[in-house]
Amino acid sequence: MNAESLTLMAEAPRPAETAENYLSVGHTIKSWLLTTDHKRIGILYLFSILVFFLIAAVAAALMRLELVTPPGDLVTSETYNKLFTVHGVLMVWFFLIPSIPTVLGNFVIPMMIGARDVAFPKLNLLSWYLFLAGGVVALHAIIVGGVDTGWTFYAPFSTTYSNSHVVEMAAGVFVAGFGSILTGLNFVITVQKMRAPGLTWFRLPLFIWALYATSLILVLATPVLAITLALMSLERLWGVGVFNPKLGGDPILFQHLFWFYSHPAVYIMILPGMGVVSELITCFARKKIFGYHFIAFSSVAIAVIGFLVWGHHMFVSSQSVYAGMVFSILSFIVAIPSAIKMFNWTATLHRGSISFEAPMLYALGFLGLFTIGGLTGLFLAAMALDIHVTDTYFVVAHFHYVMVGGMVTAFMGGLHYWWPKITGRLYPEKLAQLAALVMFIGFNLTFFPQFIMGYLGMPRRYHAYPPEFQIFHVFSSAGASILGVAYVLPLIYLIWSLWRGPVAGPNPWHATGLEWQTPSPPPVHNFDYAPVVTEEPYNYPPLSEEGEPVPVHV
Amino acid sequence: MNASAHHPSRSRYFKIWAALMILLFVTWAVATLNVGRFNILVAMSIAVVKMLMVILYFMHVRYGARLTWLFAAAGFFWLFIMFTLTMGDYLTRSGFHHG
Amino acid sequence: MSNHSSAVAEQFEDAAQQYEAATLGMWTFLATEVLFFGGLFMAYIAYRHAYPGGFAAGSRQINLVFGTVNTAILLTSSLTMALAVHAAQGGKTRAVVRYLLATLGFAMGFMVVKGLEYHQDFVEHLVPGRHFTTDLPYGAQIFFVLYWAMTGLHACHVLVGVGLLSTLAWLAHRGRYSTQYYTPIEIGGLYWHFVDIVWIFLYPLLYLIDRHA
């Protein structure tokens, strides 16, 4: 082995691993940086988003530290503004939006549909480089002084009055956004055109339905963000007033354009998580999923209706009341497909043979936390209530419940579930279960008090506050430290498992799905032959034969 | 072998081009007349017709799969959502229209 | 079903699947472009509604002859592009190159006219910015912002098209395409027609708001 090679496998191959797989075919940096293998690209993305997650988490830690006491004494107001901007920008665009699609989606989608790779492997690699380039620009913007506008970049503060590195940060997001468009494009065409023979739409795993819906949003919404950031930058750089009231512009137009993307963006963030949960619940309840068609159609419904509700972020912006009413009713309607999923998942659990491995713990956590997050979203959709809690910690708690309690939980569940497939190793189960539990406790301790203090009037984005809110902040910050532990634990034991974890066979969970019909880790081209699918998905055997792998005709 | 289908003949392409040029002339001509509110309506209708001619014939959508048609229409449908709901705000606000 | 043709990438089963994927992929990309330009059209609609007088006055300032000529140029370039694809279907390499070069010529002609037009606009102080002043009705400045933004973004796409057409013409000249494989020409054509369609809308919206005396 030469000095510059990267080794991700155990030193000595065990008997089960003597066959060449996608990890062993090349150990040089070049073989990784110039790969067009969707599996390697998924891993490249995994490392990248981890870096951004850590930086954004540090920003959050500093914020929570500041908030332990009422006076704003740890950092200046301007620094605090920069902290929550960094946290938002990195978490939204450089962690959540890529997370499941680019890591799990890239890895698993071609295998789930029986294909050798995605439709456009080179575009796939390009998307990662665009993501990286955007990330580098964004990090540079942070290093040279940061941005204080919040991740929402509202005009006229962003266009006219802020003294921070707005254009540079916007440029970073712009470039990374194109990477995400390419990912979405790739997935749409892959699912549309490269399914194995016999794999009709209604035989697809629900993870594919969810990612297809996500990709539709990626493709249709992200370009609007791009042009909006460009217009904002134009105004900031050259004073050309499309959003400046002094020149006849309307700052609310910025919000319309921004939220036209950013609301569907939250569905980009949650739909993949829902797809993962569908896979986990059916596998660990050992039961065919309840209401397959409903769940499949609900994914598409969320994607479509999600484009119709953006004005609920603008109820107090001076948008017309009539528009507000329309957006409000549409926001109630968009909750319905999500609720349908919740009912179907619960019905799947009913009379299932449930086991509590870590992926299932995360899935169950998702069910509870997303319910709370989703319901509080409905509260916010009611205009009258929204006016009371707008820009308070109630909103902050709501979106953290869906984004962290929902999406991050689902990501952790999916990562654990497919870890054996990706690495050929099993993670330590007891430790993983403990981490899942600690995460659940830490999360609720962090964010539930925020609902209460938000309702009582604690504003968001403030680092100094009246003393009556301190008790809530103390609980929240304590919870955050526990949450931090819960995220560090998997980092440690997952890496540990790469060297010391037991070897996983092709299908340690005895799950259905084409991806489990390949060795772990899979060979470069996934399948030596194109599989032919003749069965419904999730064809788990009746309970009396529990534990037997499901045959898939080849 | 590359997929399918019937493609237009050369003479069909030239006819479409001629129609496009005629429509260009009409657009310009109508713009020089004062027909009040109809100016914008005529101009946009002609533009839409021109666009459809390019899409259906030059871009072969008329002869292609249904799926292509769907994908071609999708972008415009979403644009329609953006225009409609946003103008729903501006049209119901007082003070935005100046004259 | 395996395929031994070197023109089929290994992730695809056969050339037909590759062709369909490429075409659908380009249409998906064009959908993103529709939304990308769409944000500017949204701003246009909102502000034209707000400032009909300012927009009309602004529209009268820009050069109708240049705009009309450019529209005719682009429409004709779409014809030559379609003829290039048609020739590629028939395997007529020399005709392909000729039509691609003709399209390229029209594209560059468009840029020349645009350059002349921008120069004239600049001389006539129609460029908005920190030092912009005007006697035109309120809202004219926003018209000019959108004029420059929309035609500028469009011109960037024409430039990309110039690069694309040059590359395709060169590769066609080198014998890269045949009746079995001319996919890049077809999807390049789709891109070019899209550029034409954007202009089909820009022309009446920017140049023809109020041209009656």
Overview of this protein structure:
The complex is a heterotrimer of chains A (554), B (99) and C (213). Chain A has 554 residues and is mainly α. Chain A contains 16 helices and no strands. Chain B has 99 residues and is an all-alpha fold. The longest helix of chain B is centred in the last third of the chain and has 25 residues, at 66-90. Chain B is flat and about 55 Å long. The model of chain B has no long low-confidence stretch (mean pLDDT 89). Chain C has 213 residues and is mainly alpha-helical. Residues 1-5 of chain C have low confidence and may be disordered. Classes of the chains: A mainly alpha (554), B mainly alpha (99), C mainly alpha (213). Chains in contact: A-B, A-C, B-C. Chains B and C meet through helix 1, helix 2 and helix 3 of B and helix 1, helix 2, helix 3 and helix 6 of C.
Q: What is the topological layout?
A:
The complex is a heterotrimer of chains A (554), B (99) and C (213).
Chain A: H1 29-33, H2 38-66, H3 77-96, H4 99-112, H5 121-143, H6 157-161, H7 166-193, H8 206-238, H9 251-284, H10 292-305, H11 321-349, H12 358-381, H13 383-389, H14 393-423, H15 429-456, H16 470-500
Chain B: H1 10-32, H2 38-58, H3 66-90
Helix pairs in contact in B: 1-2
Chain C: H1 15-50, H2 52-61, H3 64-89, H4 93-123, H5 140-173, H6 183-207
Helix pairs in contact in C: 1-2, 1-5, 1-6, 2-5, 3-4, 3-6, 4-5, 5-6
Key terms:
heterotrimer, A: 64% helix, B: 99 residues, mainly alpha, flat
Instruction: Calculate Rg of chain A over CA atoms.
Output: 23 Å
Rounded Rg of chain B: 18 Å
DSSP, total strands of chain B: 0
Low-confidence regions of chain B: none
- Main beta-sheet strand count, sense and barrel state of chain A: none
Query: What characterizes the major β-sheet of chain B?
Result: none
- Average the pLDDT over all residues of chain A and give the rounded result: 92
Number of helices of chain B: 3
General form of chain A:
globular
- Indicate the proportion of strand residues of chain A: under 5%
Task: Write a concise synopsis of the structure shown.
The complex is a heterotrimer of chains A (554), B (99) and C (213). Chain A is mainly α.
